[in-house]
Structures are given as structure tokens and as C-alpha cells.
Write a structure and sequence with these properties.
Elements (H helix, E strand, L loop, with lengths): L1 H13 L2 H30 L3 E3 L3 E4 L4 E3 L28 H13 L1 H13 L4 H19 L6 H15 L5 H9 L9 H18 L1 H15 L26
Antiparallel strand pairs: 1-2, 2-3
Helix pairs in contact: 3-4, 3-9, 4-5, 4-6, 4-9, 6-8, 8-9
Length: about 250
């Protein structure tokens, strides 16, 4: 009798229309969620994550993007603020600074070079450690060879450091962009950087004063002088001597 009652109860549960509808709905819901999760994982795997910002973004692989660029395409380099031969700079709020840079580059290039490195490095003693060796090479070159042929060997790495720090376009890349005659001889970024370094050296050798002035104008527009970034010192002045008098 008990077995027959159990079978009857099972038959009633299986034949219950509410139970069958609930089971069917649960199965459909599981299938629907399973399809959505598979589609979501497929979309995430197919398209790398892009974190957008102001003007550009970054892919999940750490590659910079610009507006309208393809995912993974490197970001284009920016132009120098002024050209190599713009000795007097531009007519803007830095006009007086550009004239100062022009005077220093023509009459005291050692001071301009030391100031450029000081702004770029911002380390104690940077000005002296670069200005004095440059002055020695400048005097030796002008005394024995009649022109400043030794100091550019010492100063041209600063131009490469400025170009890499601010992602500026180099001379080699500018020639390749204008005439397209140099791109075929370069295979990877290492060779390109070597060509850019050679162009930086040639610029300092043949247009040394103009190169120093261009670097000085660029740095003064982008970086403040290290002396202006010092933290203010708060001085506590104790109050004067006070006496307490008894009223009459």
C-alpha cells in the first residue's frame, strides 16, 4: 500500500501542470543566461579594452591612441614649439624669455646649456656640473681649432632627452614625413632612434647656437625653473613680552 501511495504521489507531481511550467521556465532562463554570458566573453576577447582620456586613450596592451586611429597604432609625435631658425622665438607671453634665450645662445652658450639641463634634470648641482665642462670644451675648441667643435659632442644628448621626454618629432622623422626618402632604410624603432640621435648630433655640430636656443625655448614653455618650485617656509614668530597690571 505504501509503495502504491508513493507511486501515486510521484505521478501526481509529474502530471502537475504548474510544476512542468516552472521547470520549463527555469531551463529556458538558464539557457538564455548561458548564451548571454558566452556572447559577452566573446566580445571581451575580440575587442581589447580602451580607456579613453582627453585627446587620447590607452589600449589594454599599453599602446597610446588618438582620435580616429586604429587600435594598437602608435600615437603621432608632436611638433616643436618653434623652428630651429626662429632665433627670436614667437610673439607671445614668452617673447621676453625668447629674447633672453637668443642673447645667451649667441654670447654665453655655456650658461644657456647649463640652464637647459637644470630645467630638464632639476637635480642639485646640475647647472655647475654641465656649465663648467661645456665652458672648457668651448675654450679648447675655439683656441686650437678656431670654432666650437668639441662642445657639441657633450651637449647633443640633451636634445635627444628633450625629444624623448615630450615625444617631439626628430629631424629624421621630419625628413621622412616631408620627402619620404628615409623610411625605407629603417626597419625597427631601435634603428630609427639611432638615426634620430645622429641627426641630433649633426644639428648641434652645424647649427649649435640655434639648437641650444630652440631647446631653451621649448623647455621654458614646458617646465618651470627648479628655483620657482620650492615649498614656502612658514616662520612662527613668538608674541612679545606681556605684563599684567593690577587695576587701581
Amino acid at each position: 500500500m505504501e509503495n502504491n501511495n508513493g507511486r501515486n504521489n510521484n505521478d501526481r507531481e509529474e502530471s502537475s501542470p504548474l510544476l512542468s511550467k516552472q521547470v520549463v521556465e527555469e531551463d529556458n532562463t538558464k539557457k538564455l543566461y548561458g548564451k548571454k554570458s558566452k556572447e559577452a566573453t566573446t566580445e571581451v576577447a575580440a575587442s581589447p579594452e580602451v580607456c579613453t582620456g582627453v585627446g587620447f586613450g590607452w589600449t589594454a596592451d599599453g599602446l597610446p591612441l588618438v582620435h580616429g586611429s586604429v587600435v594598437g597604432e602608435s600615437m603621432g609625435r608632436s611638433q616643436w614649439d618653434s623652428s630651429l631658425l626662429a632665433c627670436l622665438g614667437r610673439n607671445d607671453e614668452f617673447c621676453s624669455s625668447d629674447i633672453e634665450v637668443c642673447l645667451l645662445g649667441s654670447m654665453a652658450p655655456c650658461v644657456l646649456y647649463g640652464s637647459n639641463v637644470e630645467r630638464l634634470g632639476s637635480a642639485p648641482g646640475t647647472f655647475t656640473n654641465h656649465c663648467l665642462p661645456y665652458s672648457g670644451l668651448y675654450l679648447i675648441g675655439n683656441s686650437f681649432f678656431g670654432w666650437n667643435c668639441l662642445a657639441p659632442w657633450f651637449s647633443y644628448p640633451t636634445r635627444a632627452a628633450i625629444r624623448q621626454k615630450f615625444n617631439l618629432e626628430g629631424t629624421f622623422e621630419a625628413l621622412n614625413r616631408s620627402c619620404g626618402c628615409c623610411g625605407s632604410c629603417v626597419e625597427d624603432d631601435v634603428e630609427r632612434e639611432q638615426c634620430e640621435s645622429a641627426c641630433d648630433f649633426a644639428t648641434h655640430v652645424f647649427c649649435h647656437a640655434c639648437a641650444l636656443c630652440q631647446e631653451g625655448r621649448e623647455l621654458r614653455r614646458r617646465l618651470p625653473h627648479p628655483g620657482f618650485s620650492a615649498q614656502p617656509v612658514l616662520v612662527m614668530i613668538p608674541p612679545g613680552e606681556q605684563t599684567m597690571g593690577r587695576g587701581a
